[in-house]
């Protein structure tokens, strides 16, 4: 009886009460310093959505404009720090990333395929895992914390190399299982508010919840500069924040759950242009 | 705390007497002094960039007295007349006394 | 008046035009008056001749783009009348400034009026105001 009541309240909240019919995604086109970015694409086969829209299409003109110019984009200061880190020798090896990898442009395409299956570990990995493995094994340096300025700078820099490319994640083979796990998480109600990701991002995208314009919840822009954070933040931070909003105990950054969710969302957003580092509210 | 880094967008060339637009940004949390530490409940002390000064070949272009209501990673856009070739000098003053600076040359052509 | 679509549109346009005009000092309070008096030394302040550009609705109060300009001004004081402290910034234009204008991004605690007071080169003062609505997110996310 209690469970029915909770669900009924949640459904009412989004049905009649809190979520107000909104304007839907706008018509603006995203061009960043001359590069056209795909913010609208037909949904992949089997998707519950018809058309995929980037979160950029749901933001106000003022917010959108900050992403169209690499000077105005406040995330770019972090990218510059990333370049500095890329070229600085570190760890016992006293080697820089550049010493082995050359120009960071050589990592173009890496972020577009995240998360990536790691056969040795027997599970998929986020970009943060890959970076830490590399700096520990190849530089003899200390791991970076998930949300540290260094990790954010590096994921922003590497992510930016894939900017404009369509988001594609491997969905076959061992990834399929993890994507299913992520899908289950996406549709599971959690927390005191007893809500699932889908309640907002699938059932109500385009609508307003109070004054927030709900997006489809895609991940093509991460790490993202959010006004709310007054800074750059990782995808797993965003997941964590969403869960806290629902008054649920969030999973940890880098956890299997968040990696599975990331894998599912990458598959759900297949085809959208990478915008890393994006600007959102 | 993340590093404080300035960056500016200045045209490399201008005609003598032309008015150009300059953009500037410096990464800085602009801690207002009104936020509380979530763990201890103590107020996080104020620390902002309180002044931004721009000169060209030593002449004043613009000075901004900044209060905590300016957003984190303070951004300023303004215009400048370019009378001759020279150097634009930018200075950001932190509450803690540090002055961050940057210079860009402009050629006439 | 017949509230047909044409009339509503005209009324609507009128409302938008109103918002762009300099506002009388109805929304200011003591802190704001003090800040203005400190800037002007108590001199008279005319209405108009100062432009404030800001979004009608700010998606996030942390980062609201604002631009101020006033032909012939040597200084412009920008105030956020609804913030805990109304001071935002004072722009002082030098010889090489080209025009007395500047843009920045500011923090607004809630829906409120912005006020810009310009000190002209001839020593006179002028001001204008503009309302910015500040929204609160849904889940607070």
Poorly predicted tracts of residues of chain C: 7-27
Oligomeric form: heterotrimer
Radius of gyration of chain C: 17 Å
Q: Would you tell me the overall average pLDDT of chain B?
A: 95
Gist of the model:
Chain B is mainly β. Chain B is built from no helices and eight strands. Chain B has strands at 6-9, 13-14, 18-26, 49-56, 59-66, 75-82, 86-94, 99-108.
Q: How does this structure look, described?
A:
- The complex is a heterotrimer of chains A (281), B (109) and C (141).
- Chain A has helices at residues 2-17, 61-65, 76-87, 97-101, 127-139, 149-160, 175-186, 197-201, 235-245, 256-268, and strands at 19-20, 30-32, 35-37, 40-42, 51-53, 116-118, 123-125, 208-209, 212-213, 224-226, 231-233, 278-280.
- Chain A is α+β, with helices and mostly antiparallel strands.
- In chain A, the strands form five sheets. Chain A has a three-stranded antiparallel beta sheet. Chain A has a three-stranded mixed beta sheet with strand order 11-10-12.
- In chain A, helix 7 crosses helix 10.
- Chain B has 109 residues and is mostly beta strands.
- Chain B has strands at 6-9, 13-14, 18-26, 49-56, 59-66, 75-82, 86-94, 99-108.
- Chain B is elongated, with a radius of gyration of 16 Å.
- In chain B, the strands form two sheets. Chain B has a five-stranded mixed beta sheet with strand order 2-8-7-4-5, with no helix packed on it. In chain B, strands 1-3-6 form a three-stranded antiparallel beta sheet, with no helix packed on it.
- With 141 residues, chain C is α+β, with helices and mostly antiparallel strands.
- Chain C contains two helices and nine strands.
- Chain C has helices at residues 5-20, 30-40; strands spanning 45-47, 51-53, 57-58, 64-69, 73-80, 87-93, 101-106, 112-120, 125-134.
- In chain C, the strands form two sheets. In chain C, strands 1, 3, 5, 6, 8 and 9 form a six-stranded mixed beta sheet that branches.
- Residues 7-27 of chain C have low confidence and may be disordered.
- Chains in contact: A-B, A-C, B-C.
- At the A-B interface, helix 3 of A face loops of B.
- Strand 5 (59-66) of chain B pairs antiparallel with strand 6 of chain C, so a sheet runs across the interface.
């Amino acid at each position: 009886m209690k469970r029915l009541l909770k669900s009924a309240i949640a459904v009412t909240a989004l049905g009649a009460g809190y979520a107000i019919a909104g304007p839907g995604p706008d018509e603006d086109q995203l061009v960043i310093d001359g590069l056209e970015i795909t913010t609208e694409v037909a949904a992949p086969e089997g998707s519950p959505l018809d058309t995929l829209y980037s979160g950029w299409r749901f933001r106000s003109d003022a917010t959108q404009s900050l992403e169209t110019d690499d000077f105005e984009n406040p995330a770019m200061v972090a990218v510059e720090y990333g370049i500095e880190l890329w070229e600085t020798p570190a760890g016992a090896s006293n080697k820089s990333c550049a010493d082995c990898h050359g120009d960071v442009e050589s990592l173009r395409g890496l972020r577009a395929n995240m998360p990536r299956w790691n056969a040795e570990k027997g599970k998929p990995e986020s970009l943060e895992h890959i970076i830490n493995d590399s700096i520990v094994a190849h530089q003899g340096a200390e791991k970076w914390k998930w949300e540290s300025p260094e990790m954010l700078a590096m994921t922003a820099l590497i992510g930016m190399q894939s900017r404009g490319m369509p988001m594609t994640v491997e969905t076959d083979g061992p990834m399929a299982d993890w994507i299913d796990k992520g899908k289950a998480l996406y549709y599971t109600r959690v927390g005191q508010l007893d809500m699932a990701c889908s309640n907002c991002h699938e059932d109500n995208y385009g609508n307003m919840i109070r004054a927030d314009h709900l997006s489809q919840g895609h991940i093509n822009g991460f790490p993202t500069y959010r006004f709310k954070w007054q800074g750059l933040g990782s995808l797993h931070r965003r997941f964590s924040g969403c869960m806290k909003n629902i008054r649920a105990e969030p999973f940890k950054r880098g956890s299997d759950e968040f990696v599975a969710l990331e894998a599912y969302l990458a598959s759900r957003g297949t085809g959208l242009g990478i915008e890393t580092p994006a600007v959102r509210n | 705390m993340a590093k404080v880094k300035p960056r500016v967008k200045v045209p490399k060339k201008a005609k003598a007497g032309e008015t150009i637009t300059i953009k500037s940004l410096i990464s800085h949390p602009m801690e207002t002094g009104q936020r509380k530490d979530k763990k201890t409940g103590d107020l996080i002390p104020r620390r902002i960039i309180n002044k931004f000064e721009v000169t060209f070949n030593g002449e004043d272009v613009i000075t901004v007295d900044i209060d905590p209501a300016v957003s984190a990673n303070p951004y300023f856009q303004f215009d400048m007349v370019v009378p001759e070739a020279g150097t634009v000098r930018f200075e950001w003053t932190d509450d803690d006394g540090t002055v961050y600076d940057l210079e860009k040359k402009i050629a006439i052509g | 008046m017949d509230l047909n679509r044409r009339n509503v549109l005209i009324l609507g346009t009128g409302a938008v035009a109103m918002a762009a005009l300099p506002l009388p000092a109805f929304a200011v309070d003591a802190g704001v008056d003090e800040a203005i008096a400190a800037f002007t030394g108590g001199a008279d302040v005319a209405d108009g001749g100062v432009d404030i550009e800001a979004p009608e609705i700010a998606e996030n109060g942390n980062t609201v783009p604002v631009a101020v300009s006033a032909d012939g001004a040597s200084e412009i004081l920008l105030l956020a009348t609804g913030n805990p402290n109304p001071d935002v910034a004072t722009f002082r234009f030098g010889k090489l400034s080209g025009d007395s204008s500047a843009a920045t991004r500011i923090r607004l605690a809630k829906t409120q009026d912005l006020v810009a007071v310009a000190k002209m080169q001839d020593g006179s003062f002028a001001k204008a105001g503009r309302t910015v609505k500040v929204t609160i997110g849904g889940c607070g996310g």
